[in-house]
Amino acid sequence: MLNWYSWLQRAGIEPPFTSEYALLFSDNELQEEDIVEFSHDFLQSIGISNAKHRLKIIRLARKEKELITVSNTMSFFLAVVKLMRGKIGQKLKLGVRGPSPAMISAWRAVKKSTMVKLGKVKPDEKVIGDNFRWDSMFDKLEPT
Question: What confidence tens digit (pLDDT) does each residue in 63-73 have?
């Protein structure tokens, strides 16, 4: 079960309200998976009347939702890799080299979207390897 008091502190709610809101969340039997459903109307309906506090809570809930989305994307990709590992191994035994171009392309797209969401690269940068930014490496390259 989620410790609502510490979660609300991360949202930037002041201590006297943190305890009150943590009790509201517990009394309403809210769980961690309910965070993605938080809205102004919902928070107001359970007794959080301060609009600024609702904004802080919703901002943290959105961040949590983004982390869950990135985590789910990576989990899905790892599941696909595990599933394909056996098939790729069979192809390698038959003399076919490596994964298909479609598989490589899909892997690169998932990796780039994840890195963009985490703020490691900009959407228009090319990502090869872990953190290479090839666009800026060859900006001033001239023929000799």
Answer: 877 766 666 66
Q: Is residue 97 one of the residues assigned to a domain?
A: no
94 CB-side CA count, 13 A: 9
Residues 102 and 96: beta-carbon distance below 8 Å? no
Name the packing angle between helices 15-27 and 51-93 (round to 10°): 60
Cβ–Cβ < 8 Å for 13, 56? yes
**Domain presence at residue 135:** no
Q: What's the CA gap between 122 and 112, in Å, rounded?
A: 9
> Backbone phi, then psi, for 4, in 5-degree steps?
-65, -35
Confidence (pLDDT) at 62: 86
Residues across the chain: 144
Structure tokens at 128: 């090869």
In a domain, 56, yes or no: yes
pTM tops 0.85, yes or no: no
Q: Is residue 62 part of a domain?
A: yes
